Amino acid sequence: MPAILFVCMGNICRSPMAEGVFRHLVLEAGIEEDASTGILCDSAGTIGYHVGDPPDARAIETAAGHGVDLSGQRARSVADRDFQFFDHILAMDEDNLAGLARRCPAEYRAKVGLFMDYAPASGLSEVPDPYYGGQDGFELCYKLVRAAAEGLLGKIISGHFPDLEYFPTKWDQFDGS
User: For the residues 64-72, what does the mean pLDDT come to?
Assistant: First the structure.
């Protein structure tokens, strides 16, 4: 079954939010979080500055406001074994995508891509880093990762769980506002 890794720079804002939102949607869809029968997801950073730290308090607060719990997550760095283990390794922006591409063995490069490719209606290719901004940036981050998470889950369900009915909440139609 599919395993997905969400990646940003420090693994305290965007990628833990993506992991939490995606996990929430998977469970809402009635799919187990299990590597053998369901979907497995995790998040990591391309740098190790925050290893072991919880997500940024603003990310936790924003996600919680939408019913998503990030409080149990801890930051980690991308490991070499991740390229073999995960089926999809999804970067939040072009810089992190480039960092992943430099590290990724050639035989696994097809697994690496941009998370926002799963939310084409947004017209955006990246999830902007909200770290140095205010609460508005975290709300935008939530909206974007929710849209991409719904798009990704829809694609996975159609490919791996064809008998499951999945009705996204139209976040996948996010128009950038």
Answer: 97
- CA 166 – CA 161 distance, rounded (Å): 10
pTM score, whole prediction: 0.94
| Residue in 14, 23, 76, 146 annotated catalytic | 14
State yes or no: is 129 an active-site residue: yes
Q: CB of 123 within 8 A of CB of 100?
A: no
State which CATH number among 3.40.1180.10, 3.40.50.360, 3.40.50.2300, 3.40.50.12780 fits the domain covering 3-173: 3.40.50.2300
| Annotated active-site residue in 42, 82, 93, 129 | 129
Run of H or E including 90: strand 88-91
